[in-house]
Design a protein that fits this description.
The structure holds two protein chains of two kinds. Chain A is an alpha/beta fold. Chain A folds into two domains: 32-217 and 226-273, Nitrogenase molybdenum iron protein domain (Rossmann fold), CATH 3.40.50.1980; 299-456, Nitrogenase molybdenum iron protein domain (Rossmann fold), CATH 3.40.50. Chain A contains 17 helices and 14 strands. Chain A has helices at 32-40, 54-68, 81-86, 89-103, 114-118, 123-134, 154-169, 188-200, 233-237, 258-266, 279-293, 299-319, 330-343, 359-366, 382-392, 404-410, 434-456, and strands at residues 24-25, 46-51, 75-76, 107-112, 141-145, 179-182, 205-207, 244-248, 270-273, 323-327, 346-351, 375-377, 396-399, 414-416. In chain A, strands 12-11-10-13-14 form a five-stranded parallel β-sheet, with helices on both faces. Chain A has a four-stranded parallel β-sheet with strand order 3-2-4-5, with helices on both faces. In chain A, α7 (154-169) packs parallel to α10 (258-266) and α12 (299-319) packs parallel to α17. Chain B has three domains: 15-36 and 312-459, Rossmann fold; 48-181, Nitrogenase molybdenum iron protein domain (Rossmann fold, 3-Layer(aba) Sandwich); 196-308, Nitrogenase molybdenum iron protein domain (Rossmann fold, 3-Layer(aba) Sandwich). Chain B starts with 20 loop residues before the first strand and ends with a helix. Classes of the chains: A alpha/beta, B alpha/beta. At the A-B interface, β1, α2, β3, α3 and α4 of A face α1, α2, β3, α3 and α4 of B.
């Protein structure tokens, strides 16, 4: 194969590559409350409640529904002009009462919005007043998280929500063998795979959140006000007594995560790992599973790894030094780029709408061989990705369906991964994690490249 | 209404919501509607911003900049099926993406810079600047910035007063009309013929405006502008030269039509393009308006004859398969609901539940009159209520939008998308046929035999015991 690798230097793409644009054009990120709402739906019997405008709830519902193809009810205090001027306390009180009455939830999980944050709503006070007036035996839990949408992305909202729930519920009981796993914003297939792994290692696991059933469930035989499934509340209470917390996310840095909270408050050791995408990151995760369980990796999983390696060898020539654009949430980008670098694909652009300030550092930690051919961009949007792509001529793109217009314009394959997938059925069931996830991603990537070659060939071999 | 639904736990109706639900054929007070949504209810409505955004979105050679934090722009990026025959600028999502410091110190400078850069880069014919919740709070003087940029760049720059919490989606429609009205009357009306119209309130979803426009043109009527389906700024500028405004979609464009009537003396006709009856009525009403040219009516009659003849045999086939099935309708505007009730009737189907996000008193009165006794009529409903009604009435089909779809599917009920996202044209005569096919392809699908709520019926129907069972089989298997 004779592929000329165009490096950033050759293209004279030194910074600033493009004139900075003040506006965000086709954002590669979503707002903070969306992440919080999704995380909350991964808790058994919890209903998300947005303190703010009605539109936020409706837009977020539609966005999530179009990916998961499941109902997701998000209540809102439905601010009016008066609430914006005089405060939303009365809407909050009535709203929570109405939600409790209609849904009979186990938890009302409140997230703020830019509206309530800007007018400076005193949520502590509101909670206090509400509980003073309305608490009865068996009243659902109330938790809250601050998620102003002008600060951070949906990932910040997601992690903050998980921490808020743990901080509200965890208690220090007698230490157990239980392992806490804070996976981040994963697909339902990923969540199921993690639970399977823990089972096979004989490890009692608290996976938080776990929307694998609530956001990817069966058709109902009877009406479910709130879809069943989710991390049991008792398990969240018990996170304070776990032997260890594992949390995925190299770019989390100083972020106050649930794992860090448990470590600081209850001395539950916190191990931070990269998202287990690709072989090395998955190896690191399996090492932790072995450590926590005191047991070697079961044969089935060793074989799964073996078959993966075998297939990488079978397919390596078709992918070697192909150029890829990877985009999405920062930790997903690190994981996917790690997988790509293991199979010889050059991630020429690793881009995210997030701005943790740690994307480059995390990529270099995960991929020691990363060189100057890879451009790393935080705070990037799809217009910028498109402009970059026009210059660097990638062979393939990997990320959410929102990159479709760029890939279509370039006439290159898009491998759908992450969130959202709004143009396919089963976007919520894409498996990214573990050896099995790597296998599925690799098969898709190599086949997409083979197909592109086949389609563009004048000969059109049916034997490759 | 029966107190307990046939399936699952009882679904209660909030006291604050009870007056917004009525039954056709029952005497009593009117429906309560047009109110703010009850706090804590999971309304299917969106906000003021959403109302403005959906109405203005299809203007394809304009820049649409959302002034606020990222969510509002991100969730409305290229989600509608509004097609353009030319520029695609409207399919982008531009946002000032306000950050914490902007909220503290104000976002005016950022708005100004963003606007100047975007106008330079994309050369739009006009720009719309949408205010969101935050802008309503931090007090940015959006009007001033718009005026300044307008002077500098020489294109119309319209502020859209779409602050999310300042009203309902309907107020957003009104704000959009106010913004777009600034363009009307600023262009030349040369070469506009005496028999000319504006198509208002059609958004060219899946190319529907093109279908309608073609009908009018075949009748010999000039279409001056479509607001806002496949719209161009220059066409809107000369819209005041048309002789008649044809307004579809109950809420969204009535305000614009009223302003044009007030200032330019252009009369208005309310029309709908869904279903054979309403589509034909729209053409005939328009022809009647131009009674000085009887050939227009003749062409209309011929057009209707031709179009109906082309779809009727196939429609009849669908009707035999759909006869007696029950439907629920929940849509944004009530006017669309009227057309849907009629269109379903044409397919032999009965509407058992019908509601809208933004209907008014008169709309609901009309629904009560046109629906069979016992039909549930509801304003500003929510998932729990909709599920309750669907179960109680045991419907076979739900006509709604994305947020209603999973409710239907989870309960094993067929679904037809009649919202802004749709990719099949459902307007016009050909649209009626598409609608029938859409309905048929969901109601008659074999997948329901596996849905838990319906599996029993299929099993029973499959048992070969006598004529009664065969009847049931016919009924459930379509």
């Amino acid at each position: 194969m004779n592929i000329k690798v165009v490096t950033a230097a050759e293209l004279e793409l030194d910074e600033p590559r493009h004139k900075h644009c003040t506006a965000t054009r086709n954002a590669c990120k979503l707002c903070t409350p969306l992440g919080a709402c999704l995380a909350f739906r991964g808790i058994e019997g919890a209903i998300p409640f947005l303190h703010g405008s009605q539109g936020c709830s409706t837009y977020i519902r539609r966005y999530l529904i179009s990916h998961f193809r499941e109902p997701i009810d998000i209540a809102a205090s439905n601010f009016s002009e008066e609430s914006a001027i005089f405060g939303g306390a009365s809407n909050f009180m009535t709203g929570v009462q109405n939600v409790v009455r209609q849904y009979r939830p186990k938890m009302v999980a409140v997230a703020t919005t830019c509206l309530s944050e800007t007018i400076g709503e005193d949520m502590d006070r509101m909670f206090h007043d509400y509980l003073r007036d309305h608490w009865t035996e068996g009243h659902p839990y109330l938790v809250k998280v601050s998620t102003p949408s002008y600060s951070g992305t949906h990932m910040d909202g997601f992690h903050a929500a998980v921490r808020a729930v743990v901080a509200a519920l965890a208690t220090p009981l007698e230490r157990t063998r239980r392992v806490n796993l804070f996976g981040g914003m994963l697909s339902t297939a990923d969540l199921r795979h993690l639970k399977e792994l823990a089972r096979d290692f004989g490890l009692p696991l608290t996976l938080l959140p776990d929307y694998s059933d609530s956001m990817d469930g069966e058709t109902w035989s009877e009406y479910e006000k709130l879809q069943s499934g989710g991390t049991p509340i008792d398990d969240i209470v018990a996170t304070g007594s776990a032997q260890v917390s594992l949390e995925f996310g190299r770019t989390l840095g100083e972020f106050k995560t649930a794992g860090r909270f448990l470590e600081e408050r209850f001395n539950v050791p916190n191990r931070r790992l990269g998202l287990p995408i690709g072989i090395r990151e998955t190896d690191a995760f399996f090492e932790q599973l072995e450590l926590a369980s005191g047991q070697a990796t079961p044969a089935e999983h060793r074989k799964e790894r073996g078959r993966l390696v075998d297939s990488l060898i079978d397919g390596h020539k078709y992918v070697f030094e192909k150029r890829a654009i990877v985009y999405g949430e920062e930790d997903l980008v690190v994981g996917l780029a790690s997988l790509l670098s293991e199979i010889g694909i050059v991630p020429v652009l690793c881009a995210s709408g997030g701005k943790s300030g740690r994307l480059a550092k995390s990529l270099r930690e995960a991929i020691p061989t990363l060189d100057e051919r890879t451009e790393i961009r935080e705070g990037f949007d799809f217009a910028e990705i498109g402009e970059f792509a026009d210059e660097c001529k990638p062979h393939i793109m990997i990320g959410s369906s929102k990159g479709y217009s760029v890939a279509r314009k370039l006439g290159i394959p898009l491998i759908r991964a992450g969130f959202p997938i709004h143009d396919r059925i089963g976007g919520q069931r894409i498996l990214h994690l573990g050896y099995r996830g790597a296998q599925q991603l690799f098969d898709q990537i190599v086949n997409a490249l083979m197909e592109a070659k086949q389609e563009s060939s004048t000969v059109g071999y049916s034997y490759l | 209404m029966t107190p307990t639904p046939p399936n699952g736990p009882e679904i209660g109706i909030l006291p604050a919501r009870q007056s917004s639900i009525v039954e056709a054929g029952k005497a009593g007070a009117g429906i309560s509607c047009g109110k703010h949504s009850a706090a804590g209810s999971v309304s299917q409505r969106a906000c003021v911003f959403c109302g403005s955004r959906v109405v203005l979105y299809p203007i394809s050679d304009a820049l649409h900049l959302v002034h606020g934090p990222i969510g509002c722009a991100a969730y409305t990026w290229d989600i509608r099926g509004a097609l353009s025959s030319g520029p695609q600028l409207h399919r982008n999502s531009f946002s000032t993406d306000l950050q914490e410091l902007d909220v503290v110190y104000g976002g005016e400078k950022k708005l100004y810079n963003a606007l100047i850069e975007l106008i330079d880069a994309y050369q739009p014919r006009a720009a719309f600047i949408y205010s969101t919740c935050i802008v309503g709070l931090i007090g940015d003087d959006v009007h001033r910035i718009c005026k300044k940029v307008e002077m500098e760049k020489g294109i119309p720059v319209m502020p859209v007063n779409s602050v999310g919490f300042q009203g309902t989606k309907k107020d957003g429609y009104k704000a959009a009309c106010e913004a777009v009205y600034r363009l009307v009357g600023t262009g030349s009306t040369a070469a506009i013929k005496p028999h000319s119209v504006n198509i208002l309130g059609d958004f060219n979803l899946a190319g529907e405006t093109w279908i309608i426009r073609n009908y009018y043109e075949r009748m010999g009527i000039q279409v001056v502008s479509c607001i806002t389906g496949d719209a161009r700024v220059d066409d809107i500028r000369r819209a005041h030269g048309a002789k008649l405004n044809l307004v579809q979609c109950s809420g969204s464009m009535t305000h614009l039509a009223k302003m044009m009537e007030r200032d330019h003396g252009i009369p208005t006709k309310r029309v709908s393009y869904f279903g054979i009856e309403d589509m034909s009525a729209a053409l005939y009403e328009t022809a009647k308006f131009f009674s000085d040219a009887p050939e227009i009516m003749e062409r209309a009659q011929e057009l209707v004859r031709e179009e109906v003849a082309a779809i009727y045999p196939k429609l009849r086939e669908y009707r035999t398969r759909l006869e007696g099935k029950r439907a629920a309708i929940y849509v944004g505007g009530a006017f669309k609901a009227f057309s849907l009730v009629r269109a379903l009737k044409l397919l032999g189907m009965e509407t058992s539940v019908v509601g809208s996000q933004t209907g008014n008193d008169e709309d609901y009165k009309q629904l009560q009159e046109m629906c069979d006794p016992g039909t549930v009529i509801v304003d500003d409903s929510n998932p729990l209520e909709l599920a309750k009604f669907c179960l109680e009435k045991d419907v076979d089909l739900f006509v709604g939008g994305v947020k209603e779809r999973p409710i239907a599917y989870k309960l094993g009920i067929g679904f037809c998308d009649h919202n802004h996202e749709r990719k099949e044209p459902l307007a016009g005569f050909v649209g009626m046929l598409n609608f029938a096919r859409e309905v048929y392809s969901t109601v008659a699908s074999p997948v329901w035999q596996f849905a838990p709520r319906r599996a029993d019926r299929y099993r029973k129907a499959a048992e070969p015991v006598g004529a009664a069972a065969k009847e049931t089989l016919k009924e459930v298997a379509v």
